[in-house]
């Protein structure tokens, strides 16, 4: 039975609710006839598809003088990109521990040099988005500031201390020596509580952060692609690709009642839904990307956390949320997966291998309702219309080895993929698709992008041996 159209109606996120004006791309190309062929077809109009379309259609890029078609099974930003937490933030040095940990312990199994490279790649992504937003004059609520990474257990405080020492040394010994480590550690509980306004804080890291309105961000990038003066780019919403097959020296995409489109180069930007395009796959590709249910909400703070007392940092809290302050609508926050597991709010089976974003759960709703009042000092009483006002879900893709899959799909000439960001795609995708566009032009891996993102049989095999880590 085909996966599309989905038999349910997805929840609507805050971002999707607040991007409905005349410059949004709702229903764009929904009733237009699909062309029979194009030079490049991008499947998926989330941030991966939109950003790749943008980079492919710049003057001098590979699609100059050529036709690019973007397809989405639903609307622009209808997947995780339009439903996330809005953070565009590189992770702190604590992320290096995750990358470096062996696969059998749930890590990325990378060398220290590879880990440091991936870490700096995220850092550069923020710089790049900031520049792009400014240069293109995008109206996407982009904010640049700092993030508090808050630790609430002695165990994590100790790990953080050790990580800081270890990774400062590792970076100094890597080819990135000389680059500044843009994080400071506050290892004093009283100071940590005061800064974070969180009574449970024992220590915190302060480092670079960004946020944006992700649905407007995706829309703006796609609009720039559609307006390209050097390429012809079209977008067809509500056009699910049901299957693909080799056709001549390219691919034929079966889009059901919308017809068939052929292209020499097809790029899958289908993230958590990629597995449905590889039903009989035995290479490990299909199983490498695990669709995972995530939920977020919008909280309107009382006056105690508004105006001059509004939060002026984004947050990542141990056994708490990822959280941003929007310009006008209060806070957007969601629980990390381990909050749900350790708090016995959801079992792994309820979170992993799920691709239905029509449901929100009572357990997460209760958590979102109580988090700010429980943890922020002096939050106080919420009045009518304050507190949790909206709650939605989305499907992200966990990659079995904690790293995205990017580039040519082995044994499928002309088929490319970029997916699997472990709930952290905004922190790497715009940079990553710039490199992918370069690869499409030159035929060579862009040396700037971590080489271990490449899709290899060896990598898929290795990760499959640890596929049971999510069950
Ligand atoms: C609740 C939540 C909170 C998150 N918070 C953050 C955060 O704060 N910061 C951060 O960096 N990341 C966050 N993420 C992760 C981030 O949203 C993703 O990494 C990112 O959006 C992935 O973008 P994408 O374009 O690859 O995938 P998606 O946005 O999921 O886009 C894939 C698109 O492909 C389309 N598609 C799939 N299959 C087909 C097909 N067969 N035919 C046609 N179209 C198809 C889908 O309709 C969809 O639009 C969060 C995710 C969720 C769900």
From TrEMBL:
Q: According to the UniProt entry, which residue ranges have a biased composition of type Polar residues?
A: 8-20
Q: Which InterPro entries match?
A: FAD-dep_OxRdtase, FAD/NAD-bd_sf
Report the domain of life of the source organism.
Eukaryota
Give start and end of each FAD dependent oxidoreductase domain: 39-429
- In Pfam terms, one family for this protein is DAO
Q: Where is this region: Disordered?
A: 1-20
Name the chain's protein: FAD dependent oxidoreductase domain-containing protein
């Amino acid at each position: 039975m085909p996966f599309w159209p989905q038999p349910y109606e997805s929840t609507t996120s805050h971002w999707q609710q607040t991007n409905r004006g005349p410059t949004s791309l709702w229903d764009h190309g929904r009733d237009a006839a699909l062309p029979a062929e194009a030079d490049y077809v991008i499947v998926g109009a989330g941030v991966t598809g939109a950003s790749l379309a943008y980079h492919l259609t710049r003057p001098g890029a590979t699609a100059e003088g050529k036709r690019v078609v973007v397809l989405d099974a639903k609307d622009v930003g209808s997947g995780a990109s339009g439903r996330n937490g809005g953070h565009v933030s590189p992770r702190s040095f604590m992320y290096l521990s995750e990358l470096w940990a062996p696969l059998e312990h749930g890590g990325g199994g990378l060398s220290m040099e590879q880990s440091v490279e991936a870490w700096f790649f995220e850092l550069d992504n923020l710089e790049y988005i900031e520049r792009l937003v400014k240069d293109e004059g995008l109206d996407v609520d982009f904010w640049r500031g700092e993030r508090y990474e808050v630790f609430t257990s002695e165990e994590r405080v100790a790990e953080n201390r050790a990580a800081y020492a270890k990774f400062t040394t590792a970076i100094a010994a890597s080819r990135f020596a000389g680059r500044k480590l843009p994080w400071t550690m506050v290892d004093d509980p009283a100071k940590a509580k005061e800064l974070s306004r969180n009574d449970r804080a024992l220590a915190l890291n302060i480092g670079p952060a960004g946020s944006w309105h992700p649905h407007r961000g995706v829309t703006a990038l796609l609009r720039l692609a559609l307006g390209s003066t050097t390429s012809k780019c079209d977008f067809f919403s509500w056009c699910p690709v049901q299957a693909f097959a080799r056709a001549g020296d390219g691919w034929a995409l079966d889009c059901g009642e919308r017809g068939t489109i052929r292209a020499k180069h097809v790029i899958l930007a289908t993230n958590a839904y990629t597995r449905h395009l590889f039903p009989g796959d035995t290479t490990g590709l299909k199983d490498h990307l695990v669709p995972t249910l995530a939920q977020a909400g919008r909280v309107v703070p009382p006056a105690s956390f508004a105006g001059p007392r509004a939060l002026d940092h984004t947050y990542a809290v141990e056994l708490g949320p990822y959280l941003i302050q929007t310009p006008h609508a209060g806070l957007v926050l969601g629980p990390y997966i381990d909050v749900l597991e350790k708090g016995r709010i959801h079992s792994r089976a309820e979170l992993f291998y799920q691709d239905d974003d029509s449901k929100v759960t009572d357990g997460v709703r209760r958590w979102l309702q109580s988090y700010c009042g429980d943890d922020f000092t002096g939050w106080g009483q919420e009045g009518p219309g304050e507190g949790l006002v909206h709650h939605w879900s989305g499907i992200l893709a966990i990659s079995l080895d904690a790293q995205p899959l990017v580039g040519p799909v082995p044994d499928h000439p002309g088929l490319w993929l970029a997916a699997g960001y472990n709930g952290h795609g905004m922190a790497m995708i715009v940079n990553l698709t710039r490199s992918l566009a370069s690869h499409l032009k030159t035929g060579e891996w862009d040396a700037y992008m971590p080489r271990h993102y490449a899709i290899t049989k060896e990598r898929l095999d290795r990760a499959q041996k640890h596929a049971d880590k999510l069950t």
